[in-house]
Amino acid sequence: MNQDYKYIIYVQFDESKKAYTFGASTPYNIGDDVVVETVRGKELGKVCAPYIDFDENKVKGNCKPVVRLATKYDLLQKKDNEKKAKKAMEICQQCIDNLNLDMHLISGEYTLDCTKVIFTYVSDDRVDFRQLLKDLASQLHCRIELRQVGPRNKAKMVGGLGNCGMETCCSRFLCDFDSISINMAKNQLLALNIQKLSGQCGKLMCCLRYENDQYTEMRKDLPKINSFVTYEGNKYRITSMNVLQKTAKLENKEDVKFVTFKDLGLE
């Protein structure tokens, strides 16, 4: 059950674009650095939106509290933790190499009070890291959490440029990953070149979803590709369409024509 909070506070962590909800008895303003209680422990975040009155319907599950405003010591502690995390990464990587484990280490992060260090990694298979935990605990002297993420999460954390030349959507603004299927590319009449349709993560690009609903709506009354139509008294097969320009390519054994949807009576 949630405590008797008066306000909902929206907090972001580091460079994450996702806002998390926390409860508080006193208001906090945009830009305030705050210490919050999370499932991982105490962490430092920044208030990113105006506070609102607490409403059970606007939070999911048990709402964790904002502990207090961050102090100068907390900010210094966070910077010190970042330096410690780099050293912990080196130790963790050395242990992984010594044990010859099939895992690619991405990041390491201490909680604010240094009671836990969280390592994020990618692996194609399940990893038996029981010995790794023992080795890390003996050297780092705190609780260890190993968090496996998929290739999309890795791309989000690493960042980079997409095929469009802009920063990848996942690292720029996406908070959650929707399922993407090859049928979306088919629906948008794109050439099914998996290499060109894949992002840095090796999965189908997230942007295939953005216009999929619009293409579905625009194509709902149109004939399917490879269906036959009669045009100017001759039978043709529709080999391609451009639903934005509202044109179609018609072919038969004797002829090829480019016509508008209006010419085909589709408008």
Provide structural commentary:
This protein is an alpha+beta fold and 267 residues long. The chain contains seven helices and 13 strands. The chain has helices at residues 72-99, 130-140, 151-158, 169-172, 182-187, 194-197, 212-219, and strands spanning 7-12, 20-24, 33-38, 41-47, 52-53, 66-69, 104-110, 116-122, 143-148, 228-231, 234-242, 247-251, 256-260. The strands form three sheets. Strands 1, 2, 3, 4, 5 and 6 form a six-stranded antiparallel sheet that branches. A four-stranded antiparallel sheet has the order 10-11-12-13, with no helix packed on it. A three-stranded mixed sheet has the order 7-8-9, sandwiched between helices. Helix 1 crosses helix 2. The mean pLDDT is 89.
Kindly summarize this structure in a few lines.
The protein has 267 residues and is α+β, with helices and mostly antiparallel strands. It has helices at 72-99, 130-140, 151-158, 169-172, 182-187, 194-197, 212-219; strands spanning 7-12, 20-24, 33-38, 41-47, 52-53, 66-69, 104-110, 116-122, 143-148, 228-231, 234-242, 247-251, 256-260. The chain is built from 7 helices and 13 strands.
Number of strands: 13
Low-confidence stretches: none
Largest sheet: 6 strands, antiparallel
Shape: elongated
Rg for CA atoms: 26 Å
Mean pLDDT: 89
Q: State the order of secondary-structure elements, H for helix, E for strand.
A: EEEEEEHEEHEHHHHHEEEE
Percent range for helical residues?
A: 25-40%
How many H/I helical runs? 7
- Pairing-aware structural class of the strands and helices? alpha+beta
Question: Whole-Å distance between the termini?
Answer: 57 Å
Proportion of β residues? 25-35%
